[in-house]
Amino acid sequence: MSEIRYDLLHNEYIVIAPERLHRPIPQQCADTFSIQKCPFCPGNEELTPQEIFSIKNNSTWQTRVIPNLYKALQIETPFISNRDGLNEMWGGYGAHEIVIDTPKHTVKIQNMSQEEIFWWLYTLQQRYRDLRNDKKLISLQIFKNHGRNAGATQPHPHTQIIALPLMTKEQLYLFEHCQRYFHNHGRSLHEDIVHFESNSQRNLFESEHFFTYTPYASSFAFETAIIAKNMGFGECSKIQLQELAEHIRSLFYALSKELGDFPFNLLFYLPPLNENFENSSFFHEVNNIFRFYIRITPRIYTIAGFELATRSMINPVVPEMAAQLLRRWYETGS
C-alpha cells in the first residue's frame, strides 16, 4: 500500500509506492571509453588542464584536482551585475573543479579500499578549505555522478566541485528550515534525526562521529544518508575522515551486493563558505543548526512527469525494507 511521507530533513512530501517496485529497470549502456584516450588516467596528464592539487605516492598520484575543461563557472570572470529591463544577470564567477578519485580507470567505489576512500575525502576537504578562503565564494557543492542514468559522461571515477558567489533557493530553504527547527526545539534537526533513527529499523551503521541510515521519506529506491554528529567537514581530523571512509566503504559494499553496479548520485550537503546578505540571518549560528551530511541516491528508476511537475518523488521501495536488505551485508562483516 502506498504512503505519503513527510521528509523532515528536506521539508518535502514523498510518495512511497511498493506497487511500482516491479517495473522494468532500463538497461545500462556499456562504457566503451578507451583507457588509452582517457584524460584522467596516469600517463595522460597532458590531456587535462594544469592540476590544482594532488596526492602523490611512490609510483604515481593517488588523486588529482584539475579545472573542469567544460567549466560552468570560472574565477577569471568578474562577478558584476547587469540589468536588462526587469531581468538581471551576473558574470559567471565561481569555481568548477574535477577531482580524479583514483588512478584506476575501471575501479568502482565499492571496490576501493578504506585508505583509497580516505585520500579521496582528504582531497575534497583540502579543496573545500582552500575555496573557503575566497570571500567572494558563498556556497559549495560536491557531487559524484556514476552511470549514464545519473548523468555521468566520463567512466573514470571522478567527483565535481562547484563553488558559487551566491546561495541557491534550495540551499537557502534547507538552512532556513534547519534554523526554524533549532529555534522551535532547542536542538539541531540532524541531532534529533540521529537520536531517533539510531533506534529505528532504518539504522544501518553508527560510530562515534557518523551515522548511516535509510531516510524515513527516501526520495529514491535504496537512498541512504551519512550524517556527521558533531563536526564540520572542514574541521574533520584525519582520524575522523578514516571513520567516514569506513562508513562509505561499508555502505557501497552493501549497496553493490543488492543492486550490482548501479548508477547513483553522491551529494555533499555543506554549510555556506562565507557570509553574504542572503545567509546573514543564520550564518553565525550554522554550527548549532546544521551538520554536514552525504546523500547517496541510486538512480535505478527514472524521474517522470509527476516528479517534475510537483518536485515530490515516487519511491517504489519502502525504506525499512531497503535497510533490512542492506543490513544483511553489514552483519556479514562486509
UniProtKB/TrEMBL annotation:
Q: One of this protein's Pfam families, by short name? A: GalP_UDP_transf
Give the protein name, as stated in the record.
UDPglucose--hexose-1-phosphate uridylyltransferase
The reply on keyword Nucleus is no
Q: Name one GO biological process term.
A: galactose metabolic process
- The answer, when asked if Zinc is one of the entry's keywords, is yes
Identify the residues that bind Zn(2+).
Answer: C38, C41, H105, H156
Q: Which UniProt keywords apply?
A: Carbohydrate metabolism, Metal-binding, Nucleotidyltransferase, Transferase, Zinc
